[in-house]
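Researcher: Let's try something more involved. This one mixes different molecule types, so please make sure each is placed in the same coordinate frame as the others.
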Amino acid sequence: MRIAELSRQAGVSIPTIKYYLREGLLPPGERTNRNQAQYDEPHLERLRLIRALIDVGKLPVATVREVLATLDEPDISLHKVLGTVSASLSEPTASTPDDDLVAAREDVDALIERHGWQIAEDTPELDVLAGIIVRARQLGHAHIADSFDTYCEAAESIADVDVGYVSGLGTVENVVEGVVVGTVLGDAALAAIRRLAHQNLSARRFAES
Amino acid sequence: MRIAELSRQAGVSIPTIKYYLREGLLPPGERTNRNQAQYDEPHLERLRLIRALIDVGKLPVATVREVLATLDEPDISLHKVLGTVSASLSEPTASTPDDDLVAAREDVDALIERHGWQIAEDTPELDVLAGIIVRARQLGHAHIADSFDTYCEAAESIADVDVGYVSGLGTVENVVEGVVVGTVLGDAALAAIRRLAHQNLSARRFAES
DNA sequence: CATAAGTAGATACCGATACTATCTAATATT
DNA sequence: AATATTAGATAGTATCGGTATCTACTTATG
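Model: All components are placed in one shared frame. Result:
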């Protein structure tokens, strides 16, 4: 198909497609001439994936490029891609070593320990979580962190179905794509569902009709 | 305290504080003179809250303003503030009524029904979730939505501790602030914890040492 | 009390991000 | 032959989240 058709089917404007081509998010089409290229189904799928990562996951274009690069690596393992996707999705942690952060990080390590989780020391999420605890404390809501044990238990059942889902995808490429889609769409879905659960609970407990 | 001190304690530059004042995120200090104003503890707390919403929650400044406005309303109920905060946090849903979206929305309604949740028809998260399902289908990952029942169960226990936490906060103002902080920091924490759970599970199942 | 430092408020400017528009030279379609 | 479409290059634009500067003061300090 030509670029106009790709644009129509994906619902993405031609200038935007050209922009993604320039930015290396989308591989160039197969050239048939100096000013003609053919795009096919994989292009369309890739384009839809890009839009999902941007629209639903709110990923910046640069992060999308990183994630897609991981996805295109020839020898990928599920565990490795999880790490890379995680790393791309969490901001690089602040440079200041900060006493508060170190303390919070110890609490995070204890949390992980309590749940018997096997996590590499340098996983960025550990610092992200520590950072959140620091903020909560600064805001006078230190006890929010007390809920994190429950969050962990809940996350275990969630991770269970998540990994179950991707495991059933067959080829490595499919699994890896499933990880990306599942991570990003899953985050968004989980946030929405949590809000719905809040609404439900507060409707039941505190509704004044 | 004067603006320099406020800046120092919050770790936010003076021009940025002035910007927040202009944007109405931060109420003006108490004027003592034509070019002097006093800021106090509440200002500092508000400023820290603003930074947490922006840094951790990635909320745009305009949304922070909305959320803070809700927080400052004189007569607020927990249930109302949950709705307003939710509304501020989810983008306004697309205008196109779209067949795919309608179908997905029915699936969402069925999901809510299965769990016996009481949710107002017009809650924005219902459409957000439907939108995510549409994207998943377009990406050939329709079955991701099968996991949402598990997500709901997990979200129930999470919402339980969340509501338990804010209920214990005493005054209405504290509760409302707790909702805001808990929603935003909680989302970020939950996402991080989910990633950690993934890492743990994949380490155990698929690790090649 | 003079001089330096700090401040409010107004306005202008800035860098990053994510596109969008335009132009050229060529090819495709009708 | 006339019209539409395309690749690729380059330039322009809107928004966002600040920064910087300037003026007319007021405070703090030696």
